[in-house]
Amino acid sequence: MATGTAWYNLTKSASNENYNVGIFNNNFDMIDEQMHQNETGVFGGATELADGTVGNVPAPTIADKDKYLKGDGTWAEVQGGGGSASAISDLTDVSLTNLADGDVLKYDSQNQEWVNSAESGGDITDLDFSDMTNNQISDLIDNLNAGAADSGTFTTGSQQYEKVEINCGFRPKYVKVILPFSQSDTVAIYDSSISTTTSTWYIPQESRTYTLTLGEAQGETGISDITDTGFKFRCNAGNTRNVQCTFTSHGGDSYIATVDFNDLTASQIATLKSVLGIS
C-alpha cells in the first residue's frame, strides 16, 4: 500500500507494488512547483490583522545598508538607545547645534534632551559673595588651593630680630601668618607668584604695608626666610614678641593668589560650597 512523504506528501509505492509512472510524474510536478515558489515567493510582512507569510526577504538598496528588516516587511533606521548608533547625533535624545571645539553635553530637563554648550568651570549663580569680608575671602583662597598644605600655630621669639623656624614638611610657595597686634590683627604674606625674594607685612590700623627682603638678619616683623622645609618668622617691636600666631602654607603649583570666581573649576566650586555650607 502506497504511503506519503513527511513534508510534501509525495506518494511512495509500497515494496510489493509495481513502479507507477503517473505517481512518479506527479511527485516531480509537486517538487517543481515548490521550488518555483521558493524562488519567487516574497516575504509577507505582518499587519495588525494578519500574520506574515514565508518568502524571500526583499532586497535592500544601497541606502538600506545600515537599516534592519522589520516584521512588517520594510527596512527601517536603527533608533537610539540600542547601542547601534554610529554617532552621538544619531541618538533621538541628543540635539547638536553650532558645534565648537571644547563643547560639552548638558541635559536640558525642559526639553528632555542632551544639548551641546561651551564648557565652563561651574554654576555659581546661586552663591552671594556681596557680604563676604576680606578675611572670609582669604579663608576661601586657602581652602580652594591644591598641593601640599600645612597650617597651625607658633609663638614668636622673645628677642628683637629673633627668628623662629616653622617646619611645614615642604618648601612653601605661599605662606600667610596672622599675628595679633595692638587692637587688630596684622597679616604677613609670602607669595612666590608675586615675588620669590620678598614678603609683606600689613598693619590695618596704620593702613601700611611693609616689604621685607628675605634672608636679612634684621628688619621688620614678618616672614624673613623660606626654607626647603618651611619658613622663618622674625619679630621686631616689643608687642610682636612672645605672641601666638596662626599660619597656613601651600606648596602646590596651582595656588590661587587671588580669586576670580568665573574661572573656578567644578571641584573648586564644590569646595567653595562646602566652606560656605551650601548644598
Structure, explained:
There is one protein chain. The chain is of the alpha+beta class. Among the domains are: 3-40, no CATH class; 78-118, no CATH class; 146-255, Immunoglobulin-like, CATH 2.60.40. It is 15% helix and 28% strand. The chain has a 6-stranded antiparallel β-sheet, with no helix packed on it. Strands 5-7-6 form a 3-stranded mixed β-sheet, with no helix packed on it. The chain is rod-shaped and about 135 Å long. The relative contact order is 0.12. The mean pLDDT is 79.
Structural class determined from secondary elements? alpha+beta
Morphology call: rod-shaped
Order of neighbouring strands in the sheet with most strands: 8-16-10-11-12-13
Helix tally equals: 3
The name of the CATH topology of the domain at 146-255 is: Immunoglobulin-like
User: What is the class of the domain at 146-255 in the CATH system?
Assistant: Mainly Beta
Largest sheet: 6 strands, antiparallel
Q: Based on the structure, what is the oligomeric state of the protein chains?
A: single chain
Rg over CA atoms: 42 Å
Provide the succession of SSEs. EEHEEEEEHEEEEEEEEEH
- Give the termini distance in whole angstroms: 91 Å
The CATH architecture of the domain at 146-255: Sandwich
Average pLDDT, rounded to a whole number, is 79
Could you list the spans in which at least 5 consecutive residues all have pLDDT below 50? none
Give the amount of beta strand, in percent: 25-35%
Q: Specify the helix fraction band.
A: 10-25%
Number of beta strands: 16
